[in-house]
């Protein structure tokens, strides 16, 4: 009986600790959300915690009224959609071919692909390549160099390899070629892994700003994350010095920055619940067998 | 790869197999590989050749190939630069400090594994993974909103309690802690997934046997759960060590600011500043190459150690 109550104590300790850590993960997001809807005075006096004080939409109307912000959003949406389609198509082609057991030369090709995961020549050779291909300041520089992620390719190939061989044999006997087999049988059966890789590619493209920072200097082509970087992070030093000068001066940057952060994160938060379900199972298959 | 599916006993007759494996059946596969292989050659292998820039006096107008060879001159130059050593030191320092947070996902996974309330378990998992999907730009922006000395919410709160504001982002030591904390926030929940999967793979009979022997909960964790996930721990730890010389670009770049450059300038951000911003391509390429080679050596060493310790390689 003593042991039972001791176990109860452990249970409670675990529940509390997990709860604290989970809150630690979401509270910052919720706080920014609250800030983005709060009034200037409330933000400045630090009254806002998890719920907006003095509800208003000023910050959001500023963000939505900013033409360059909306242009960045449109560019990013087009970029994400194009990238996801291209990346998915390329990965499917390679994963299917490499998963066929009698495909001569597949080990050599697979080996060549694996090697690229180990040696990364670095930022400059990649930059010079983009420069020599005349892709600087072109949206193509944000799509072409990332079309196939070797790690995701391995995951998809593993999943394709797991399909029963008899399926291919009988399809072949029925006169079905590789293309029709891939389109009519493999892809419909592999929807979960396609969703995983597709969603992962989309989120990746949405979140990444490094390549845009390197390759895009024309402000008209800034994707959202880069725009946000320039707005929120790059301007912080100026803000800090401005705040030192006139301490109680205009607090609006904080509201606008919070609203911009929510604006760029909301799509991710919306797809996240689906993403998580697919992604975990997909990732585990890949991580365990890859 | 060794995952090749072996067909036991049902081998097709030789004649039919030849027909099936013939070019007639294979040409579509080669066709499918054309674009992917073109991608890998163009965007992965050509840049590997591009590292020769590090051995050349790169001239923008001549291009990579026509520029003059200068041997190891560029490397002599970088090894004489104090900023290079600073970037190297910072890379290693931030990585070593981040390595201290390595047990956090293990502890989280062990605790989640002990949770009996299913809805609570699922909810907390969802919340824990969430930060992984938030970009570093957003994390950097949130850090400023929350932690800035004069405007950040945390410091507003401290001030309202009558305390002194803490310079989370401006003081070097506080910045290192903030950087590490942001790393935990972003990665810990995600890392938990792998350990949880390893934990679910442990044979249930072991627990039942321990139960019969009257083992306590902590004993079961110590003698069954931990040994059960030891291979996973070792592999992930060694991968971390292998990545010592490597540091991602986005995390330090999104978190750094003018006050803390002394500790926040790491190799990747240094290469960007020197190479792309000031167009000293050869210098930056040499720094990048140095980093890649050290990284490769560490990775291969880690693989060797893993084979010794774990009886199994990482790859």
UniProtKB/TrEMBL annotation, chain A:
Quote the InterPro entries the UniProt record gives: MetI-like, MetI-like_sf
Q: Where is it mostly found?
A: membrane
One GO cellular component this record assigns the protein to is: plasma membrane
| Key words, A-Z | Cell membrane, Membrane, Transmembrane, Transmembrane helix, Transport
Q: Which GO terms describe its biological process?
A: transmembrane transport
Q: In which compartments does the protein localize?
A: Cell membrane
Instruction: Tell me which residues make up the ABC transmembrane type-1 domain.
Output: 73-275
Membrane-protein topology = Multi-pass membrane protein
| Superkingdom of this protein's organism | Bacteria
Q: What is this protein called?
A: ABC transporter permease protein YtcP
**Which species expresses this protein natively?**
Paenibacillus woosongensis
Its gene?
A: ytcP_2
TrEMBL record, chain B:
Q: Indicate yes or no for the key word Hydrolase.
A: no
Q: Which residues form the ABC transmembrane type-1 domain?
A: 87-302
Task: State the InterPro entries in the record.
Answer: MetI-like, MetI-like_sf, UgpAE/MalFG_permease
Instruction: Tell me how this protein sits in the membrane.
Output: Multi-pass membrane protein
Gene Ontology terms describing biological process: transmembrane transport
Annotated TM spans? 27-46, 92-112, 133-153, 173-200, 221-242, 281-302
SUPFAM superfamilies assigned to the protein according to its UniProt record, in alphabetical order: MetI-like
Q: GO CC terms on record?
A: plasma membrane
Gene3D superfamilies per UniProt:
MetI-like
Q: Which UniProt keywords apply?
A: Cell membrane, Membrane, Transmembrane, Transmembrane helix, Transport
Q: Where in the cell is it found?
A: Cell membrane
**Family of this protein:** Belongs to the binding-protein-dependent transport system permease family.
Entry protein name: ABC transporter permease subunit
Record organism = Paenibacillus woosongensis
